[in-house]
């Protein structure tokens, strides 16, 4: 028997252990080995029942994602066919679920007649996150086990459930006492089944899964969710598959699921989401840094500044059980900051997301202070003070004096020169940028800015710590705005300029939300603060001095005190949570266009799309060429997790590849020619883009 599967007999039982570390992904070789083992057990008259388990303690994380989109995905034995074969073995199969049963892993367990799980195991059908639906019977067998509505919710959410929950839902028949006794208890269970003369497959609990559903359930559900799903394909296919489970006999339902699955697998959206899956794992690998490098211990953190950002940053550590000191200059600012944190936690308690006891525990981990002496023993200090280089440098001079040797000194700057901040200390090797996104306790992205002299162990430690506090860290080099805000600059510039030329903010934003961005760029600036954006521009204004139209609309709104949502006026007018078009903005744009002699006209959606997105993409490619980003997929992660770029488009770099790099280059050159002096000044293709197209390359990579 191949090493991918362990096979052993225990009396009348055949124990079959999946052994393909790290997660028993059900790629073709493992499927073949599993089938062979099961056939052997089926054919052996001495075997009365089969216990299927993960030989390394973990059951299975599902199909091998790297096979999707290639022939290997459906190479014999394919997973759906293999599972149908298991359901036809006339001996009871018990799935002993350790650690994880996800996707095809859970479907494998569902094909077994009986399931037992250990207390730490988690179960789920996360295919939706990959733009897929369960494609090995999950959409047909799960509704028959737990009812159509529960199955639909579980598959659409993609969330994992714990064993207690899975037991209550009816997915698990039994709970083992602990991981160590799982296999033994699975064997006991199998013997009991044999003693009872239990059938190989028990009768379905919900032979008609739709039995409890109200009339018109599916049409109603679809209508309710349409807007939220935007243009996503997978949720619609999931719904169709569950509907099929309700309407068709099992065999036909399985065939229908196959059709729907193939449609999903072949879609651009699934390719994009699979790209994102691997991008997230790749982001943690830093060339030249040994993963086995010794980390610096982080037992205590300090945050300088108790403003919205500082408070949010501190919450991340308290949430992860790490003590954190928040330092402020004045006691009223400190009290305000800490009570904001408390209020945030209280909202979570009210929403049922946090217990009162947990709130109290987290607040106990947060200590306020007015004295730098209190942070002398911190292992990591994160500065979150006003975004001005001189102020931040002053803070770092003080940190250099008070902090213990070896402490990591981080700045939360969103754009400033981390090398210039590090340079005022006597220990630049300990300085790094940690750019949290607002709200810092919610947003998953963390830009980790590696300064020129940042030590490898400082980088490695912060990357590991970021994962510990639930963030997705992406490494950036030093430049104005790093990866995210530097790309935002030309993107926002074009949006503002197009309003001068005659588009309304709603038109510009509408094109962007039309391709499923969470928010148009102008709405985003209103949310982030037109004042904040203005001040960032001031810090870099020499770079744009030769264009009098440069972000003029933003400057003018700033001068008028229209700071966006916080002042109820910005690119839009806000009444409560409602965003309305503002005729004043139109008038201001008209006046500025007159002053700058910019002719006004109507702009087609395609032009809006190309000007915003091609400039975004072009800047990303330039960043890669400069080595600010390590890889194109890192840029995608920044924009998906920090700026609401839809994951099902794969991020701006992947989107550009889907559009065709030659198309992007042609578009930029066309705009360069058609937009007069504006086009000449700004629509310059990145040299790397030109090189890639000239070489006939279709992927964005440095070369
Ligand atoms: N296929 C291929 N590789 C996988 C995999 C899968 N299903 N799941 C994890 N891996 C790989 C990862 O790429 C990673 O590889 P590297 O070390 O080379 O980067 C390694 O396993 C460990 O994964 P993580 O770094 O993510 O480790 P973790 O402990 O943080 O998380 C996990 C483990 C929860 C299983 C997570 O990897 C995960 O969520 N995996 C995806 C699970 C999933 O979506 N399953 C459904 C697949 S689709 C399907 O099954 C369709 C169907 O119906 C037939």
UniProtKB/TrEMBL annotation:
It catalyses: a (3S)-3-hydroxyacyl-CoA + NAD(+) = a 3-oxoacyl-CoA + NADH + H(+). InterPro entries: 3-OHacyl-CoA_DH_NAD-bd (IPR006176), 3HC_DH_C (IPR006108), 6-PGluconate_DH-like_C_sf (IPR008927), ClpP/crotonase-like_dom_sf (IPR029045), Enoyl-CoA_hydra/iso (IPR001753), NAD(P)-bd_dom_sf (IPR036291). Pfam families: 3HCDH (PF00725), 3HCDH_N (PF02737), ECH_1 (PF00378). Coiled coil: none annotated. It is found in: Peroxisome. One of its GO terms (molecular function) is enoyl-CoA hydratase activity. It comes from the Bacteria. Residues 300-476 form the 3-hydroxyacyl-CoA dehydrogenase NAD binding domain. Pathway: Lipid metabolism; fatty acid beta-oxidation. Residues 481-574, 609-698 form the 3-hydroxyacyl-CoA dehydrogenase C-terminal domain. PANTHER family: 3-HYDROXYACYL-COA DEHYDROGENASE-RELATED, 3-HYDROXYACYL-COA DEHYROGENASE. This is 3-hydroxyacyl-CoA dehydrogenase. It comes from Pseudomonas denitrificans.
